[in-house]
Amino acid sequence: MLVFVIVAVFVAGLMVGRKPEYLGKKIESYEMKMASLLILIMPITVLVLTAIALLTNVGKVAIFNPGAHGFSEVLYLFTSQGNNNGSAFAGIGTNNPFYNLTGGTAMFIGRFFLAVPTLALAGSLVKKKKTPEGAGTLPTHTPLFVAWLIAVVILVGALNFFPALALGPIVEHLMLW
To answer: 62 and 25 in one domain?
Structure first.
Protein backbone atom coordinates (compact mmCIF):
# COMPACT_ATOMS: atom_id res chain seq x y z
CA MET A 1 0.00 0.00 0.00
CA LEU A 2 2.90 2.34 0.68
CA VAL A 3 3.98 1.95 -2.94
CA PHE A 4 0.52 3.04 -4.06
CA VAL A 5 0.73 5.99 -1.65
CA ILE A 6 4.00 7.05 -3.27
CA VAL A 7 2.47 6.76 -6.75
CA ALA A 8 -0.65 8.66 -5.65
CA VAL A 9 1.45 11.43 -4.08
CA PHE A 10 3.58 11.69 -7.22
CA VAL A 11 0.65 11.78 -9.65
CA ALA A 12 -1.33 14.21 -7.48
CA GLY A 13 1.72 16.42 -7.16
CA LEU A 14 2.13 16.48 -10.93
CA MET A 15 -1.55 17.23 -11.46
CA VAL A 16 -1.76 20.19 -9.11
CA GLY A 17 1.76 21.53 -9.53
CA ARG A 18 2.97 20.77 -6.02
CA LYS A 19 6.23 19.10 -5.16
CA PRO A 20 5.59 15.42 -4.55
CA GLU A 21 6.73 14.49 -1.08
CA TYR A 22 5.62 11.97 1.51
CA LEU A 23 6.51 12.13 5.20
CA GLY A 24 8.91 14.99 4.49
CA LYS A 25 10.85 13.10 1.80
CA LYS A 26 10.78 14.26 -1.82
CA ILE A 27 9.54 11.68 -4.30
CA GLU A 28 11.71 11.79 -7.40
CA SER A 29 12.22 9.72 -10.54
CA TYR A 30 14.25 6.95 -8.86
CA GLU A 31 11.52 6.31 -6.29
CA MET A 32 8.93 6.24 -9.04
CA LYS A 33 10.97 3.73 -11.04
CA MET A 34 11.18 1.42 -8.04
CA ALA A 35 7.49 1.91 -7.25
CA SER A 36 6.59 1.15 -10.87
CA LEU A 37 8.67 -2.03 -10.75
CA LEU A 38 6.95 -3.09 -7.53
CA ILE A 39 3.51 -2.52 -9.03
CA LEU A 40 4.27 -4.23 -12.36
CA ILE A 41 6.24 -7.34 -11.33
CA MET A 42 3.22 -9.32 -10.14
CA PRO A 43 0.87 -8.54 -13.07
CA ILE A 44 3.60 -9.23 -15.63
CA THR A 45 4.41 -12.54 -13.96
CA VAL A 46 0.76 -13.59 -13.76
CA LEU A 47 -0.20 -12.53 -17.27
CA VAL A 48 2.91 -13.90 -19.01
CA LEU A 49 2.66 -17.30 -17.29
CA THR A 50 -1.09 -17.42 -18.02
CA ALA A 51 -0.38 -16.70 -21.69
CA ILE A 52 2.33 -19.38 -21.83
CA ALA A 53 0.01 -21.93 -20.22
CA LEU A 54 -2.78 -21.15 -22.69
CA LEU A 55 -0.52 -21.17 -25.75
CA THR A 56 1.30 -24.44 -25.12
CA ASN A 57 -0.12 -27.94 -25.40
CA VAL A 58 1.32 -28.99 -22.03
CA GLY A 59 -0.55 -26.11 -20.41
CA LYS A 60 -3.84 -26.79 -22.19
CA VAL A 61 -3.84 -30.53 -21.42
CA ALA A 62 -4.52 -29.90 -17.72
CA ILE A 63 -7.52 -27.61 -18.35
CA PHE A 64 -10.60 -29.78 -17.91
CA ASN A 65 -13.19 -27.03 -18.48
CA PRO A 66 -12.99 -25.45 -21.94
CA GLY A 67 -13.74 -21.84 -22.74
CA ALA A 68 -13.97 -18.92 -20.36
CA HIS A 69 -13.99 -21.05 -17.22
CA GLY A 70 -10.75 -22.76 -18.21
CA PHE A 71 -9.17 -19.37 -18.79
CA SER A 72 -10.43 -18.22 -15.37
CA GLU A 73 -8.91 -21.31 -13.76
CA VAL A 74 -5.47 -20.66 -15.25
CA LEU A 75 -5.63 -16.94 -14.48
CA TYR A 76 -6.63 -17.63 -10.86
CA LEU A 77 -3.92 -20.28 -10.52
CA PHE A 78 -1.11 -17.92 -11.48
CA THR A 79 -2.65 -14.94 -9.68
CA SER A 80 -2.75 -16.98 -6.49
CA GLN A 81 0.75 -18.32 -6.95
CA GLY A 82 2.16 -14.92 -7.90
CA ASN A 83 0.74 -13.53 -4.66
CA ASN A 84 2.26 -16.19 -2.38
CA ASN A 85 -0.78 -18.41 -1.87
CA GLY A 86 -0.60 -21.19 -4.42
CA SER A 87 -4.21 -22.35 -4.56
CA ALA A 88 -6.13 -23.38 -7.67
CA PHE A 89 -9.64 -24.26 -8.82
CA ALA A 90 -10.60 -27.92 -8.63
CA GLY A 91 -11.20 -28.15 -12.40
CA ILE A 92 -7.56 -27.85 -13.40
CA GLY A 93 -5.02 -30.64 -13.15
CA THR A 94 -1.93 -28.89 -11.88
CA ASN A 95 0.01 -31.92 -10.70
CA ASN A 96 2.25 -32.13 -13.75
CA PRO A 97 5.80 -30.90 -14.43
CA PHE A 98 4.67 -27.85 -16.44
CA TYR A 99 2.39 -26.38 -13.78
CA ASN A 100 4.75 -27.39 -10.96
CA LEU A 101 7.65 -25.52 -12.59
CA THR A 102 5.68 -22.48 -13.74
CA GLY A 103 3.87 -22.28 -10.39
CA GLY A 104 7.15 -22.47 -8.53
CA THR A 105 8.53 -19.76 -10.80
CA ALA A 106 5.52 -17.54 -10.10
CA MET A 107 5.92 -18.00 -6.35
CA PHE A 108 9.66 -17.38 -6.52
CA ILE A 109 9.19 -14.16 -8.49
CA GLY A 110 6.29 -13.07 -6.27
CA ARG A 111 8.34 -13.51 -3.12
CA PHE A 112 11.90 -12.58 -4.01
CA PHE A 113 11.79 -10.26 -7.02
CA LEU A 114 9.74 -7.77 -5.01
CA ALA A 115 12.38 -7.55 -2.29
CA VAL A 116 15.06 -5.82 -4.37
CA PRO A 117 12.99 -2.81 -5.52
CA THR A 118 11.43 -2.57 -2.04
CA LEU A 119 14.83 -2.35 -0.38
CA ALA A 120 16.06 0.08 -3.06
CA LEU A 121 13.03 2.31 -2.52
CA ALA A 122 13.41 2.20 1.27
CA GLY A 123 17.14 2.89 1.05
CA SER A 124 16.58 5.83 -1.26
CA LEU A 125 14.00 7.37 1.05
CA VAL A 126 16.14 6.83 4.14
CA LYS A 127 19.10 8.67 2.56
CA LYS A 128 17.02 11.78 1.81
CA LYS A 129 16.95 14.70 4.18
CA LYS A 130 13.60 15.43 5.78
CA THR A 131 12.17 18.71 4.57
CA PRO A 132 9.69 20.74 6.58
CA GLU A 133 6.14 20.99 5.28
CA GLY A 134 5.43 24.16 3.36
CA ALA A 135 2.52 25.79 1.61
CA GLY A 136 3.14 23.60 -1.46
CA THR A 137 3.09 20.30 0.41
CA LEU A 138 0.22 18.00 -0.48
CA PRO A 139 -1.53 16.85 2.73
CA THR A 140 -1.78 13.06 2.83
CA HIS A 141 -3.99 12.81 5.91
CA THR A 142 -7.20 14.20 4.42
CA PRO A 143 -10.27 12.31 3.15
CA LEU A 144 -9.59 13.77 -0.30
CA PHE A 145 -6.20 12.06 -0.45
CA VAL A 146 -7.71 8.80 0.81
CA ALA A 147 -10.28 8.96 -2.01
CA TRP A 148 -7.49 9.73 -4.48
CA LEU A 149 -5.45 6.77 -3.18
CA ILE A 150 -8.43 4.44 -3.60
CA ALA A 151 -8.92 5.74 -7.15
CA VAL A 152 -5.25 5.15 -7.99
CA VAL A 153 -5.35 1.58 -6.64
CA ILE A 154 -8.53 0.78 -8.60
CA LEU A 155 -7.22 2.42 -11.76
CA VAL A 156 -3.88 0.61 -11.69
CA GLY A 157 -5.59 -2.69 -10.93
CA ALA A 158 -8.08 -2.17 -13.73
CA LEU A 159 -5.39 -1.24 -16.25
CA ASN A 160 -3.35 -4.30 -15.32
CA PHE A 161 -6.05 -6.95 -15.16
CA PHE A 162 -9.27 -5.79 -16.86
CA PRO A 163 -8.41 -7.22 -20.31
CA ALA A 164 -7.69 -10.63 -18.76
CA LEU A 165 -10.78 -10.45 -16.55
CA ALA A 166 -12.87 -9.57 -19.60
CA LEU A 167 -11.72 -12.78 -21.31
CA GLY A 168 -12.41 -15.04 -18.35
CA PRO A 169 -14.53 -14.25 -15.28
CA ILE A 170 -16.60 -11.47 -16.85
CA VAL A 171 -17.47 -13.55 -19.93
CA GLU A 172 -18.21 -16.51 -17.68
CA HIS A 173 -20.60 -14.40 -15.61
CA LEU A 174 -22.32 -13.02 -18.70
CA MET A 175 -22.74 -16.57 -20.06
CA LEU A 176 -24.84 -17.42 -16.98
CA TRP A 177 -27.54 -15.05 -18.22
So the answer is: no
Total Cβ atoms within 10 A of residue 9: 25
Distance of alpha carbon 76 from its chain centroid, rounded?
14
Residues 29 and 49 in one domain: no
Model confidence over 111-145: pLDDT tens digits?
899 999 999 999 999 998 888 877 767 778 889 88
Q: Is the pLDDT assigned to residue 151 strictly greater than 80?
A: yes
Its pTM stands at 0.84
Domain of residue 107 covers: 45-129
Split into its structural domains, the chain has a count of 2
Give dist(CA 62, CA 116) in Å, integer. 34
For 139, list phi and psi in degrees, rounded to 5.
-70, 130
Rounded Cα gap, residues 164 and 78, in angstroms: 12
CB atoms within 10 A of CB 158: 11
Q: 166 in a domain, yes or no?
A: no
